[in-house]
Amino acid sequence: MRKTLFVLAIICVLFATATADRPLASSPQSFDRASVPTQPPQTARIPAAAPLLSFDQKPADYKLVWADEFDGKTLDLSKWDYRGLGPRRAAINVKDCVTLDGEGHLVLTTKRAGKEYHTAMIATAGKFEPLYGYFECRVRWQKQPGHWSAFWLQSPAYGKSIGNVAESGAEIDIFEYLTKFGDSLQHTLHWDGYGPDHKSSKKAADVPGLGDGWHTIGFLWTPREYVFSVDGRETWRTSEAVSRRAEYIILSLEVGNWAGDITAAVLPDSLLVDYVRVYQRPPDRKE
Ligand SMILES: [Ca+2]
Predict the structure, then answer these.
(1) Of the residues 108, 125, 147, 154, which has the fewest C-beta atoms closer than 10 A?
(2) Which long-range contacts (CB under 8 A, 24 or more apart) does 96-103 make?
(3) Sign of the CA dihedral 13, 19, 20, 25?
(4) Is 73 left (phi over 0), alpha (psi -120 to 50) or beta?
């Protein structure tokens, strides 16, 4: 009997050791973990696509200032407008390609319409134009070639003052996803207009498992730098081309050869967006 109790005690000690919280060894930076005390420890075996296992990238004192959870049945026009209705690249932006599925998701769709292609773009221009903050969205990618999805920020003064990106702002592509990228997406910055002075910088983020399922894309914008993340893991940090003016949010699908041959696509095909959330430091605290 005493031997049995001794063995049980050893098993308990081993179990407690094995389940103790471990440091996030894969974390490339010191995110604030204090705000997510209930999340389980990460292990190398958790696939990147696993939901809600990532830790919190936003600074601890940031507060939610704007969000769309897409819980309604139609696009909330107090927050968004249809953007660029009409021809754009190799498709036509139409309202009908922007829908909500009634299950909490925005659905941006590319579809055939006779010999044309219809697709979708929405923006918060004139309705919500934040300066700095932490931006996050949760998405499920389109599956077909010939179109790409993007979550991006654009400046109303883009390119107006060449050589002064702080004043003019930048196009900040928080993500661009093409199915041909597979388990990779692209973060891209554009500034100094789209003409001869145009400049850009980009980073491919390779994340195992990225091609399937739902993913959370984060972006922290401060006066000093940009920090991008995918599923809670930092993927790019740069102080290049930092905009210091308010910008608006865009969600889009675009049709073009960059993404491959749209004639080979099985359509309709959609990008699903679970939410867009924006957090900022309270105004009484200096950014
Ligand atoms: Ca939702």
Answers:
(1) 125
(2) 97/253, 98/122, 99/74, 99/75, 100/70, 100/72, 100/73, 100/74, 100/75, 101/272, 102/73
(3) positive
(4) alpha
Nearest to 254 by CA among 150, 100, 123: 150
Nearest to 175 by CA among 205, 131, 132: 205
For 122-147, what is the mean pLDDT? 98
- Residue 286 Cα, ligand 1 centroid: separation in angstroms? 31
Full set of structural domains in the chain with CATH: 59-280 (2.60.120.200)
The rounded Å distance from CA 116 to ligand 1 centre is 31
Ligand 1 centroid from CA 244, angstroms: 30
Segment 218-277, tens digit of pLDDT = 999 999 999 999 999 999 999 999 999 999 999 999 999 999 999 999 999 999 999 999
Amino acid at 286: K
Q: pTM (2 decimals)?
A: 0.81
Identify the CA nearest to 142 among candidates 49, 48, 259: 259
Residue 108 pairs in a beta bridge with: 98, 271
Q: Determine whether 213 is exposed, middle or buried from the number of CB atoms within 10 Å of its CB (0-12, 13-18, 19+).
A: middle
Please give the distance, rounded to the nearest whole angstrom, from the Cα atom of residue 201 to the centre of ligand 1: 31
Backbone angles phi, psi at 48, to 5 degrees: -60, -25
End-to-end Cα, the chain, rounded Å: 64
Gap from CA of 278 to ligand 1 centroid (Å): 14
Structure tokens at 98: 């922007």
Say how many Å lie between the CA of residue 105 and the centre of ligand 1. 5
- The set of residues, in sequence order, having a beta carbon less than 8 Å from that of 190 and lying 6+ positions away, is 170, 171, 173, 198, 199, 200
Distance 275 CA to ligand 1 centre (A): 5
CA of 4 to the centre of ligand 1 (A): 52
